[in-house]
Amino acid sequence: MSEREKMLAGEWYWANDPELLAMRARARELFMRYNQTLNSEQPLREEILAVLLGSVGKNPDIQPPFYCDYGAYIQLGENVFINYNCTILDYALIKIGNNALIGPNVSLYAASHPLLASHRIRKGSDIAKPITIGDNVWLAGNVVVCPGVSIGDNTTIGAGSIVTRDIPSHVFAAGNPCRVIREVTEEEGS
Q: Would you tell me the Gene Ontology cellular component terms (predicted)?
């Protein structure tokens, strides 16, 4: 099994494998080109995203600068807005649902490492777990989403939160670690 296959299977893998290094180098070239585009170059932006990302729904709006490790393991729904300085470590599949709003300085981390230094420096020292962000989710500024987390539909995550475990649909959640504060109903409005 290749290191890429181990990574995608959620097994320990070696991130400095030549195939993975080449894939990350390709992604960096593409996102650097993307980050140099102007707002008026939306067709070019969409063209670059179509090559960089695993899948892209209609009307993507990603404000530069944008950073990712592979790009190929990011799936965007329709009408996704990602604000400035988003960092996505897509060592596993990261799905972002329709109408998602991603605030400035948000980080989605699918990669993790062992706690013991002796384990971090040996071959196979990385592991990745997928992240799923549902439809109509708003991640406010400076949110961090950790490996293996799912966030349900119609949920808002408050600014500065660190999401370490799953968050259900139709709630407002915030904090470090992020926890459900209350349910949100359609009648509330805002």
A: cytosol
